[in-house]
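Notebook, bench 3.
Goal today: get a predicted structure for Beta-barrel assembly-enhancing protease from Mucispirillum schaedleri ASF457 so we can plan the truncation constructs. The sequence was checked against the plasmid map this morning, with no discrepancies at the termini. Length recorded as 917 residues. Pasting the sequence as submitted so the record is complete.
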Amino acid sequence: MLALKSRVYILLFILILTFGCSEKRTIVQDNVTANLNINSVAQSENTDILEGNEKFSAGDFDEAIKLYEKASKENKATAFYNIGVSYYLLNNTPMAELNFREAVNADPDFLEALMNLIAVLAEQGGEKAKEAEKYVEKYINSANHSADAYSGIANVFLSVNDTAKAMYYYKKALEKDAASPMVLENYANLLISIGEYEDGINLLESLPNRNFIIHYNLANAYFATGNKESAYNNAQEALYSDGASETGYDKLAQLFNKLKKYSDEAQTLRILISGNDERDYRVRLIKAYLSLAQNDKAIDEIDLLLTQYPKDEELSLLKYNVMVYVDTAKAGEYIKSLYEDLKTDKVLSYYAKHVCYFNKTQNEIRPYIQTDRNNGWLSLAKTVYALKQGRYNDAANYLKTANRENGHDYFAYNTFLNIKNRDFAKAASFAANLDLLQYDTFWYKLVIAWNLREPQTVLTLGEEYRNSSLISIRPPSFEFNIRPVLHDMSFTYRFDDKSIDTASMLAYPVFMKPDETTQFLITGRSALKERDKNSVTSKLEGIKMNNAAIDDFAAFNFENARQKFEKAAGNLTNNTIVLYNLALTYFNLGENDKAKEIIDKAFVIDKNDGFIHLISGLLNYRKGNYPDAKLNFEQAKLYASKKIGELETPEDEDIMLLYLSVLSGDRPSRRNEAESIYKSNDNGFTVSCALLMDYFDDYDIEKLNELKDSPIFRVSRVRNLLALRHTPIDQFKDIDDADRYYTLAYKFVMLQRGAAKAVIFNKRFAHDKVYLKDMVYVSIYRHDVNSGLKYLQTLSDMDFKYSELYKVSLYYFTWIRDFVNAEASYGSLDRMGYNDQTSFFYMLLYFLVNFNETRLNNYLKLYNDAYSADYRYDIVTAMMNLYTKNVSTFDSIIRRLLSQDPYLFDKMFIEVNFEKF
């Protein structure tokens, strides 16, 4: 059987060096030493050497050595040299070194012997490598060497990772012959070895006659650059090219394995086995068959090996691993009988895992693990038993006495525990060492990739699932958790750097000026038009109250403004201006339902009023009804445009209505343009105007700038919020401002920028329902369970009928997995008939986290009917399919969503975990 030198210190293949040889000897060209750092044996007319070379070619190195030793009396240099080569291939480097020294001593001009001595010294490193450098100098100085000789010296230095010296001698080689294919090939290998992949690839691609080595090195380099298609193409070319040694096929099989081309790996291993029936090759072939789901072939190969190695623990456990995929019950019987036969703790750890994974009761293994023995394998058996019982702390303690030498299960159990503890980064570090052929590896990697937001890995695993039969064995039970994301939280006062956020803050109440009829009444000529003095007085009082309310609004005293607008609405019935002002005030108070109720009344009076459409659009947008909001803003814009077109001198409010309706539309924020204007003019109002230049002529812009200092508009506040984009996080400070809208919008931007710790509770709003509701979301985002509960309790004491209380509490209790209180919150919302897109979404989250397939399906349909499917709908659907192990559908949904939005995982709101072991 051919025994091959296995210690090759570089991944690249090095060609045999060809030197000028003496007349008395030549170097035999063979495949045995191809791609190693030494030259092959020398030929001679001596009969013993000739017979020794025949034994050498047949792989019988021990017999070859005996014949070479006979020849050493007459042909010392050649015989010792050949003995050295034979010992090298027998993995006996010290004896190889000794004989190469003898050959050099016998013939100082024997350059091949000197070169091989340099190679074995360099390979051993340390002081030996330093000695090799001295011989290099002697070798170089001994003759006027060819380019190939310099290239060979460079290869030696490359083999010991001395790339600087390797580069030096490659350049010497290139000076000798810049067109030498061998030099160019080896130089390309150097470039690849130091990470200069593109230059190395280009050199190799330029070579006209490509053999096995060139194709392999190209495949390896392409693989390193991530070009798996080119790597595979070249690997296949290598497989059918000349010049392959056993080492070459060995490394090619390893590359096919990395590429997950298991059929090609199996074919390459069969070629290897045909020339060397080595156990390692056969074990790797078995694993390739397993990867191809050719389980019968795998078991046949194992059984053949077991006839050679009966009671071999490793082979027996490999057979168990294959049997699991064929018949888990029979695999269980096999591992049990194997333990009874071998009685080793390693087999016990497999037996315990099988029982805990596949059997309904674990009592049968309890007597075997209740022992005072202490080793890593027994610790794994105790660990899996504790995991199955849900005793995770005990399992973690048992694992402390195991280590990486205990293989896959050591890493698997650590991975599971870290996932349960939601430390996904640490779980990933353990999962990196999992055996890809084990049935639990896929699930660990999928959960970790999802939670670490690695979409490409999730897609790759989905593709693996479609193409592998190894994954469907004993899929785990999942559970889901909410991952708090700002985008999903129903903050009343958002500032997402969208133009509609600016429009929402700049929306203003409209002053009511007495019309001509009212003026006529005031001057005493009312009898011509109106005989009811009380009615006239009421209208005038309504106008006065409306305008007084606007002063309160400008001072951000929204509660006083609300009361006065309510009185104005009572005095001026069916007046859309007052209703708009009142709805806008409720909008600023965060009372969205009340604002909607008032707007609905206004629409009955005048469904074409532009201001009514504006506030309705702002409300619809806040509640997630985006299509309706867009229609509202279009109507407001049309109304304002028509009014402006009809008047020679447009009214200020019509210009502002047009401005706000355009700003509120779906025009995206032109951030770069806005920031450049912001830097040149520190004025948030000017920034907003700049976004809309193509909608307004010079007159309009001038009029807008005249209005920018009006107390009605939050211009300075908008400017401050925009400025937060340029503020370093460590300089963030919370604010205390009477304007609750601005205060909470400011807090939201702080959270958005990552300054969550800087957000403090403002006592000014300690009894403000909307403020408290938003602070619950702040607490959730900061993972502050206790503060969130405190704010919820205060809110409940203040107004237990407040619909937003139950909406936020549903999210909160689902987040902390308190399903009793979450169900109560859901029931309250359902009884109130409260629904908007966000509350519907929270219900979906609740039915997903507290998994209920029937409810989830019903509400998915309701959500789709009301709001149409969006990414949140799709993600929940994907999670439902993952829960029911319909992984193909899960993969299809995620694949489609990522094709539409590559940054989908940045706003992912669901975390995946294991329900139990």
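The longest strand covers residues 478-482. Residues 741-868 form a domain with the Serine Threonine Protein Phosphatase 5, Tetratricopeptide repeat fold (CATH 1.25.40).
Flagging this for group meeting.
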